[in-house]
Amino acid sequence: MLRTATHSGPVVTVTFDDGATTRFHAIWLRDNALDPETRAPGNGQRLITIGDIPADTTVGNTRVVGGDLEVTFQPEGKTVIFPAGWLADHAYDRDRPKDAGRTAPGLTTWDSALAPPGADWNAVHADPRAKRGWLAAVAEFGFARLTGGPVEPEALLRVADLFGYVRETNYGRYFEVRTEVNPTNLAYTGLGLQAHTDNPYRDPVPGLQILYCLENSAEGGDSIVVDGFRAAQRLRAENPEGFALLAGHPARFEYSGSDGVCLRSRRPMIELAPDGELVAVRFNNRSSAPFVDIPFDRMEAYYQAYRQFAAIIDDPAMGVAFKLEPGESFIVDNTRVLHARTGYSGAGSRWLQGCYADRDGLLSTLAALELAQPEAAE
Amino acid sequence: MLRTATHSGPVVTVTFDDGATTRFHAIWLRDNALDPETRAPGNGQRLITIGDIPADTTVGNTRVVGGDLEVTFQPEGKTVIFPAGWLADHAYDRDRPKDAGRTAPGLTTWDSALAPPGADWNAVHADPRAKRGWLAAVAEFGFARLTGGPVEPEALLRVADLFGYVRETNYGRYFEVRTEVNPTNLAYTGLGLQAHTDNPYRDPVPGLQILYCLENSAEGGDSIVVDGFRAAQRLRAENPEGFALLAGHPARFEYSGSDGVCLRSRRPMIELAPDGELVAVRFNNRSSAPFVDIPFDRMEAYYQAYRQFAAIIDDPAMGVAFKLEPGESFIVDNTRVLHARTGYSGAGSRWLQGCYADRDGLLSTLAALELAQPEAAE
């Protein structure tokens, strides 16, 4: 509920009933008007362009009507209602964090002390709340396990179907992760793999990876996940200049292990939004290409930062380890969480299937579940 | 061919036979060593991590051997050959452009004077050179037409099969672009659409869009494409501060027109790499959400820049227009090139099918064709 609304030139000032005050610009309000001539009823899309709004738009009048804001815009003479709750949700007249390397609201970073979040196969199929909790864990922590699933090839595609769409690549709709004789990728050997994000040579990288276990009787072959955002923040704390170097210069990645495939990218190991929020981490020793975008006189410091970032990632205090049993799987947010595996021996067998999926599909499904179950929101 | 190689502390200096001189650091050379213990023969992936390389790595000896560089690293006592051509290709001891908003090498920006690049359906199926030219046009200009294709539903999927993989979304593997009674998206009406990039509410956005024409006898319904990178550079020239505002603050985009779909993103309209190279443009009046990440005292200037950017995009001097005939299609690089359509009337019919595909698949197929046809490289 609004208590007062006033205007002065192109600025509207409102006071909420709790005494909080905030300001909006006439052009911003006009562009975001919620009336059916501005926004299509139903699909909610904007029907006008910025060019349709007079450049000299200003406020002719403001009133509080039923606790909401009524604004009349000039020269259009158009009157629009803005609900008080909508204004509170979209207020931009505020201090904002400026520290480079902060995480988006709603994310929780973690280290080895985290109990791995997870859910049960049957529950996420039967109970929308269980499904919501599972997807919310991926959004908050960047990974989640799923236990109790069928031990069946292609079951991982049913995991993807729960929230979105498989992203097909040169590796197929899904790929077999087991020892091959002439591997096109070191993932298809028994070697241990340092914690890494997948396919940094792709742009964009796959947003999510699902790894689904069908056999795991070999010695070793444990899974380890590491929060790349926590690692980046630790680097920032230990070596701010090194953090700035990894965030401030593109790295290069490349893969051309199969016929007809030649993937190359030019992206930083630590990606920030223009306002400093952490967007993504890319880290993969196997597919790092020669870095050629760092000035000569910064290269040694860049390598020092890279070495330090790697040491943080390899630090056992950072990783959460678990061994997948047949029928178990996990999802990682490949823009944030690195995954590793310990080496495994020829005794017994290890067979996983992996696929990629889009992160926006998962977040969309989660947001729609949250809208449908508002009472469950924390 | 190298003429000389010397070292001093951790730096190796080489002189090519044309007299050019460049320097490399010991740690960089060691990390990028090409020997089979460092790089897996076959798939080319690196077998060691940065932590496997001694932190005190330095150069014990350098020699020119058969025109190539031989380096012995200490304390490992490891000797590795670096071909002269490889060193020339990966030299980083150079001045690099610093201007924000420059385009990557190999891109050509354009305006309405451009003759739309295109290729013929049969040619790209039969002739690898024609296919290569067609894909190279997408890489260089951000769009290309394809004419002479079959007038058959789902033919667009065969276009995607030529270079990569469809990216399935909530709109399906592909979607119908024609007038609907209760449209979930304004694209499915006869309205004109301002030039836009698709799905900026998705993160990452679809890298490529294919629009394939099956019927187009309606009045209007012309296609227009605009080079978003050229538009960004024009904004930079006309209003450098406005360019910096659009590049320096995240915008917001949102779509929730269908049940169970709630897509939101927080990305700038003009995205730059950390070193200022243009990465992407996002522009869509229909799905822009309220911008809340711009400081209050910059919001008016931000909107002024947004209005100016829109006016540049709408300027007829910027757009290349064509009318698709049945069996014709075009690909747009949705991270760079905006597309528009003029409104069309109920007389006659207009039916397009659209789908998304990944840009990295196209660029990989192109790079592999270039490696296979080196003599054709310009």
From TrEMBL, chains A, B:
EC number(s) recorded for this UniProt protein: 1.14.11.1
Keywords: Dioxygenase, Iron, Metal-binding, Oxidoreductase
MF GO annotations: gamma-butyrobetaine dioxygenase activity
Keyword Metal-binding: yes
The protein's enzyme class: oxidoreductase
Alphabetized Pfam families for the sequence: GBBH-like_N, TauD
Domain Gamma-butyrobetaine hydroxylase-like N-terminal: 9-87
InterPro entries named among the record's database cross-references: AlphaKG_dependent_hydroxylases, GBBH-like, GBBH-like_N, GBBH-like_N_sf, TauD-like_sf, TauD/TfdA-like
TauD/TfdA-like domain segment(s): 116-356
Names of required cofactors: Fe(2+); L-ascorbate
Similarity field: Belongs to the gamma-BBH/TMLD family.
Protein name: Gamma-butyrobetaine dioxygenase
